[in-house]
Design goal:
Shape of chain C: globular
Number of domains of chain B: 2
CATH class of the largest domain in chain B: Alpha Beta
CATH class of one domain in chain C: Alpha Beta
CATH topology of one domain in chain C: Rossmann fold
Helix content of chain B: 25-40%
CATH superfamily of one domain in chain C: P-loop containing nucleotide triphosphate hydrolases
Number of helices of chain C: 8
Strand order of the largest sheet of chain B: 6-7-8-3-9-10
Order of helices and strands of chain C: EEEHEEHEHHHEHEHEEH
CATH topology of the largest domain in chain B: Rossmann fold
Helix content of chain C: 25-40%
Number of helices of chain B: 8
Largest sheet of chain C: 6 strands, mixed
Shape of chain B: globular
Number of strands of chain B: 10
Mean pLDDT of chain B: 83
Number of strands of chain C: 10
Chains: A alpha+beta (837), B alpha/beta (235), C alpha/beta (250)
Structural class of chain C: alpha/beta
Distance between the termini of chain B: 35 Å
Structural class of chain B: alpha/beta
Mean pLDDT of chain C: 78
Oligomer: heterotrimer
Order of helices and strands of chain B: EEEHEEHEHHHEHEHEEH
CATH superfamily of the largest domain in chain B: P-loop containing nucleotide triphosphate hydrolases
Low-confidence stretches of chain B: none
CATH architecture of one domain in chain C: 3-Layer(aba) Sandwich
Largest interface: A-B, 31 and 35 residues
């Protein structure tokens, strides 16, 4: 068949089904948009870290890095340079800082490096060449970030690192005049000496980057390991990216999973729309086959349908997805920014585009070809009735659903990490159950109807029993089922996670009446050390009983950046029960208090094959042997946490600096008064004083923000589903006008017909949504279990029955309400509509 | 020249004896002849047409069109045969709404290697001959039932087949339009030397044929037109 | 003579087809009494179906009045019209149910507005029995022959025991013998139940089976000259003027 003929045939048929085609385009576009937006959100995070890291280090091959923010001595640089095969070495000193401008403050990652790196390193580091303003202390930041704190041109700002504050000239990146962009990453660049000066640690480095020919990888790496002597980390130059990926994994996973779920709803929408034209297309195929078109020609003709639909829908979907990712998915998970320089820029990769378009094309092809499968495959005229095979297939549905359900249960019990497979198999079980349940609902409805009498419900049941519209009825019910399923399971898992996080946070935050710690958002997890200078003065304040030292930081161990919490030695209960996964609470607290023991997140311990009671060396600045007291959750930090006492910390890191003072108040002392007093003592030093309640609130907000994307996706799922169902029902009702008109001729009144339509919608949508709610409860269990096992987040498992019923009722009610309008209009049809003129 | 020899097609029935849809039919239709098969519904008329159109295989017997045995064609070959050698007109008028009469008539030609311009060159005179000269660019929904059926006839004749099968072509029309359409069909086919095999239960339609056969329970009996009119009268 | 059940008084109706106005009915007058069977014959597009629709109150005439049992249809509310169609006027058409209702359910459907399921089915069964289709009650529309469909359509129309039956060309697809059977059945029904029937007919032989005959031409309802028909029960075949098959074979 000529291509031009295929195109002509497409064009010829287009006009008759333009509306349905547009609906289908919209449905697929919604799916593509959701896939695309979530992809972009994920890769943006990933790429912004990666781009920064390569932007700074360029084509460097390896790095040696310190295990704390104090770093190591510069003399190591010479030693590394002497390693045979090393061509270039670049020193870097990196600190978390709080930059205070005229209108606000921002936490940034200050990277200090040698102008040597500026020549050899990545594109971003080249800015440094322009920053040599005659010895003045100068640094640069992305213009967008500088603007945030009210700096549009060169001006002096306050930089706080730990408890140190220094005035420095900030040159917004715009003015530096380089083409490479830092985007909107919270990062500041300065010459090495400047940053060392700001931190008050001259002659210190946090990492050294090395360039060497790839063929010498092994020998160079070995030499670097020798130099590091177990006190420093050695790895590839893009280690930060690896660490980040690990940390962002759970968010990526959940976003991906939930996006896939919502995409499925979008595609069902499209499928519904395509179902509308199935009878027409089927009779056309029959005609064409009679006229001598071969099966191949039919497939060619339909393929063009699918391709055009897929391409247009994908293009629209990408556009929508772009809007969605800018408007909704742009908020990066806040908690990750404490440990990584995450930019706010969006990065669109070809992979995201290809992935989304592929999804769209598959949906279009499936939507066009699947309903017509039988018509294509059959000989042009049926000689045997189809019903037999359909009934045989129906008998297989429930066992198949049972098998999928069993599979899901196996995954839930034995391998919750395969949650995605579990959700897919649960969805399959759900869809397979649906036809049987719908039949059952219709049968029960029939029983009830016989008692109730009334023509409306009877008419509704007749329509539901009809085989002609079976596929579409099922598709509509399936849309509702999946929407409620997704909504209930996402929301349930989210709720469990949030409750877990909050309980866990409470366990940490409520240890002291007041916290004194360095300012800056990046210090939310209390990981910035400062010089211990004010302890005595704080201790003398009236109302303060004791001042304890809390220490905390991040430790890069393997591919994980672990959150370290070192509770004051005096604390008799350093860990709370919600945080504990395995081990005895009393024994663990006693061991932590005694020292020499620590608690690791389950996932970290598993990765290093550590068991409770086992002794091992912790790779800190001063590698120290510890014994594992118990296993904990990750305390809300995706890659895991480590709990120990503060004295052990000082020993293992060789560092006496605290990250926070914990103030215990005397009985009867006023929290507000003591807080004011304490602020008087430390306020000028770039420190802040917070009550436990304040910290809890902050952490709750952060947990909620981190989980906000789940809520957004859930909302989108619900909106898409309600629209999809309403549109499909509406179209179905509209197509039925002729028959409604016929019934009017027989004396059925408008009210009866309208009621019948509402009955039908309610039964159809209600059945689907009810099944979705039941499966949703199981789904949330699966997701919760997966989150707790895979990511180690603290969760509190519960069965949100009320929420499930709520979702079910809400979605059903909204969809029925929306359907009511076209139903009313259709019921008003003139009785003569179907008659020949 | 179409020849049917001892054609048999039975269908298994849910209970009891198989349905003898076509039971030993032998018939020869020379080029350009108009033959009607007249019989009540369920007499096997449609099955017979399906067999001739190679949409079904006979249990036994042969169908030979211009020395080629239709019943032995592969799926692809039978499609080619339907495309090039056969025209098929049915009762149902599945026109594509929104598309013009011309486009609807050209649907079959699109399946051949013919370009759009040449297809048009062939279709327009055909539509003209069928009395649709002024309705060529009208959309399907603007056409009357009779006009729609004429478009379907144009579609069937567009590939210049030697044989036209018509399955109750006037079923959707009232008697007046039915007569007009049949007249046109008969004339056009006669001019083009296309053999026509019409199946119908309508004696009026059957009366257009050169020869009329009665089909009852899968068997054929020659039916003189005189008998037919007598049957009509006796009614 | 008692008052007419259905009366059309100077009814006119025209449609716009494109830019031109087509006058379908023009001052049409008609009176139909209980127990009368009237056939309306006319060319395609002559306005037969429009006439039926106006009689059923499905369409309002441009001019003139339509009365059913003395009641002016134009004064009825929507509810009133629905009641009329439900209780008084049966409409028989060629299309069947599209969903997979079995024949019994199809016939019972309009009865459900007023009756429970059991009663509806009982009445439907009775109607099917009357037209001789009781044994097809469990079958589906698709599996019926055209003749059987016509019978089911009649059962569907009479199940509610209306006083007026409007029939739109029920015999169009049928063979001669089947047409004949339908007409005989309808005549029997009229005589049994004092029903009034207004029916459009495709051709003269069928038309001649009705009690009264009207021809629709140019928007006017005409009564054919008395010699055109015989009031007896056998239609007069000699009057078949316009039948192509016979002419050809002659």
């Amino acid at each position: 068949m000529r291509f031009s003929s295929i195109v002509r045939l497409y064009r010829v048929r287009l006009r008759a089904r333009l509306t349905q085609e547009l609906f289908a385009v919209l449905g697929i576009a919604i799916g593509v948009a959701l896939l695309f937006a979530s992809q972009v959100a994920n890769t943006s995070l990933d790429s912004s870290v990666q781009r920064l890291s390569t932007g700074i280090v360029g084509d460097m091959r390896f790095q040696i890095s310190a295990r704390d923010s104090h770093g190591f001595d510069e003399s190591l640089l010479r030693e590394v340079a002497r390693v045979p095969g090393v061509q270039v070495v670049a020193p870097v000193f990196e600190q978390n800082a709080n930059v205070v401008g005229p209108t606000g403050e921002r936490s940034v990652d200050v990277v200090g490096t040698d102008p040597r790196l500026a020549r050899l390193g990545g594109s971003i580091a080249r800015h440094l060449n322009d920053l040599r303003l005659g010895g003045a202390r100068v640094f640069t930041m992305p213009a967008a970030i500088a603007q945030d704190i009210g700096v549009a041109s060169i001006r002096s700002v306050l930089v706080q690192i730990g408890s140190r504050q220094t005035r420095v000239l900030l040159v917004p990146q715009l003015l530096v005049g380089s083409t490479a962009s830092l985007g909107q990453s919270p990062i500041a660049l300065a010459p090495l000496r400047t940053v060392q000066g700001l931190a008050g640690t001259p002659g210190r480095l946090t990492s050294i980057y090395v360039r060497s020919p790839p063929r010498l990888d092994r020998s160079v790496l070995a030499a670097l390991r020798r130099i590091a002597a177990g006190r420093l980390n050695v790895g590839h130059a893009d280690m930060t990216t690896t660490l980040f990926r690990r940390a962002a994994g759970p968010v990526d996973q959940s976003t991906g999973l939930f996006s896939a779920l919502s995409a499925l709803v979008g595609f069902l929408f499209a499928f519904n729309a395509l179902m509308l034209t199935v009878p027409q297309r089927r009779s056309l195929i029959e005609d064409l086959r009679l006229d001598g078109y071969t099966r191949r020609m039919i497939v060619q003709v339909l393929s063009l349908d699918a391709i055009v639909l897929g391409v247009i829908a994908s293009a629209l979907g990408l556009l929508l997805g772009e809007v969605l990712s800018v408007a909704l998915f742009n908020s990066s998970p806040g908690y990750l920014s404490f440990a990584f320089p995450i930019g706010a820029e969006r990065v669109v990769t070809w992979r995201s585009v290809a992935f989304a378009v592929l999804g769209g094309m598959i949906a279009a092809t499936a939507g066009v070809l699947l309903p017509l499968q039988a018509a294509i495959a059959e000989r042009p005229v049926r000689s045997t009735p189809l019903r037999v095979s359909a009934r045989r297939r129906a008998r297989l549905l429930l066992p198949a659903a049972g098998a999928f359900f069993a599979g899901t249960t196996v995954i839930l019990l034995a391998a919750p990490q395969a949650a995605i497979v579990g959700v897919v198999s649960l969805t399959a079980a759900l869809l397979l159950c649906l036809p049987t349940l719908l039949d059952f609902a219709v049968r029960v409805g029939g029983r009830l109807q016989r008692r109730l009498a009334g023509a409306a419900s009877y008419l509704a049941l007749i329509e539901l029993r009809s085989r002609t519209h079976r596929a579409r009825s099922l598709a509509i019910a399936a849309t509702g089922a999946i929407a409620v399923f997704g909504s209930v399971s996402i929301q349930g898992a989210r709720g469990n996670l949030q409750r877990g996080l909050e309980a866990s946070t409470r366990g940490t935050d409520s240890r002291a009446g007041l916290w004194v710690l360095p300012r800056g958002k990046a210090n939310a997890l209390v990981t910035t050390p400062f010089s211990d200078v004010d302890r005595a003065r704080l201790g003398r304040l009236p109302g303060v009983r004791t001042v304890q030292l809390y220490r905390g930081s991040f430790l890069d161990w393997g591919t994980r950046r672990i959150w370290v919490l070192a509770q004051p030695q005096a604390d008799l209960h350093p860990i709370s029960s919600i945080q504990l996964v395995k081990g005895d609470l009393r024994v663990t607290n006693a061991r932590l208090h005694a020292g020499g023991w620590l608690v690791l997140s389950q996932a970290v311990a598993a990765e290093h094959h550590l068991h409770i009671g086992e002794s091992f060396t912790l790779p800190t600045t001063v590698p120290t042997r510890f014994r594992l007291a118990a296993l904990s959750t990750n305390l809300g930090w995706p890659t895991g946490a480590l709990i120990m006492n503060a004295s052990d910390y000082a020993r293992a890191w060789g560092d006496q600096d605290p990250s926070a003072y914990q103030l215990e108040l005397s009985p009867g002392a006023s929290l507000v008064a003591v807080k004011r007093e304490a602020e008087g003592v430390v306020g000028g030093l770039g420190m802040r004083v917070e009550t436990a309640a304040q910290r809890e609130r902050l952490h709750y907000a952060q947990a909620a923000q981190g989980l906000s994307r789940l809520t957004q996706i859930r909302t989108l799922v619900v909106i898409a589903a309600v629209l999809a169902m309403a549109a499909a029902m509406g179209a179905m009702i509209w197509q039925r006008r002729v028959r409604l008109a016929d019934m009017k001729v027989d004396g059925f009144s408008r009210a009866v017909l309208w009621r019948a339509l509402l009955w039908e919608s309610t039964i159809l949508l209600g059945t689907g949504c009810a099944l979705g709610a039941i499966f949703g409860l199981y789904g949330q269990l699966l997701l919760t279990r997966a989150l707790s096992v895979v990511t180690g987040f603290p969760v509190i498992e519960s069965t949100p029955l009320l929420a499930a019923v709520g979702s079910f009722a809400l979605i059903t009610a909204v969809a029925v309400l929306i359907v009511a309008a076209p139903g009313y209009v259709a019921a008003r049809v003139r009785p003569t509509v179907g008659m020949p003129e | 020249m179409l020849e049917l020899r001892e054609l048999v097609k039975h269908f298994p029935a849910a209970s009891g004896a198989p349905i003898r849809a076509v039971d030993g039919v032998t018939l020869a239709v020379p080029d350009g002849e108009f033959v009607a098969l007249y019989g009540p519904s369920g007499s096997g008329k449609t099955t017979l047409l399906m067999l001739i159109a190679a949409l079904m295989r006979p249990d036994s017997g042969s169908i030979v069109l211009n020395e080629c045995d239709i019943s032995k064609l592969s799926d692809a070959d039978s499609a080619r045969y339907r495309l090039n050698e056969l025209g098929f007109v049915r009762q149902t008028l599945n026109l594509i709404t929104g598309a013009s009469a011309l486009d609807n008539a050209a649907l079959k030609l699109m399946g051949t290697d013919m370009g759009a311009r040449e297809a048009r060159r062939r279709i327009v005179p055909l539509l003209d001959r069928l009395g649709l000269g002024e309705r060529v660019s009208h959309r399907a929904e603007q056409l009357s039932m009779g006009e729609r059926q004429r478009v379907m006839i144009a579609r069937a004749l567009s590939t210049e087949p030697k044989l036209l099968l018509a399955d109750e072509p006037t079923g959707s029309l009232d008697s007046m339009r039915g007569r007009e359409v049949l007249e046109l069909l008969a004339e056009t086919c006669r001019e083009r030397k296309v053999a026509v095999l019409l199946v119908t239960h309508d004696p009026q339609a059957a009366s257009f044929a050169d020869r009329v056969f009665a089909l009852r329970d899968g068997r054929l009996a020659e039916h003189e037109p005189d008998h037919l009119s007598a049957a009509l009268k006796a009614g | 003579m008692p008052d007419a059940l259905l009366s059309l008084d100077s009814v006119s109706k025209s449609y716009w087809r494109g830019p031109s106005e087509v006058r379908v009915l023009s001052d049409a007058c008609l009176e139909l009494h209980a127990g009368e069977f009237m056939g309306v014959w006319g060319r395609r597009g002559a306005g037969k179906t429009t006439l039926l629709r106006i009689a059923a109150g499905l369409e309002t005439p441009d001019r003139g009045t339509v009365r059913f049992d003395g009641e002016d249809l134009s004064l009825l509310s929507e509810q009133g019209h629905a009641r009329l169609r439900r209780d008084e006027i049966g409409w028989i058409r060629r299309s069947g149910p599209r969903s997979e209702l079995c024949i019994l359910d199809y016939v019972a459907l309009p009865l459900l507005i007023e009756h429970g399921q059991r009663e509806a089915k009982r009445r439907a069964d009775r109607a099917l029995r009357r037209v001789g289709m009781a044994e097809c009650a469990g079958q589906h529309w698709e599996s019926l022959s055209d003749g059987e469909r016509a019978l089911v359509a009649i059962a569907h129309g009479i199940a509610r025991r209306p006083r007026l039956l409007l029939i739109d060309d029920p015999t169009a697809n049928l063979g001669v013998r089947e047409r004949e059977e339908i007409m005989i059945l309808l005549r029997a029904l009229v005589e049994e139940t004092n029903l009034a029937v207004l029916m459009t007919v495709p051709d003269m032989p069928t038309a001649l089976r009705s009690h009264q005959l009207r021809a629709l031409s140019g928007g006017r309802l005409l009564t054919p000259p008395p010699d055109g028909r015989d009031d007896g029960d056998d239609g007069d075949e000699d009057n078949v003027i316009d039948f192509p098959g016979i002419q050809r074979s002659a």
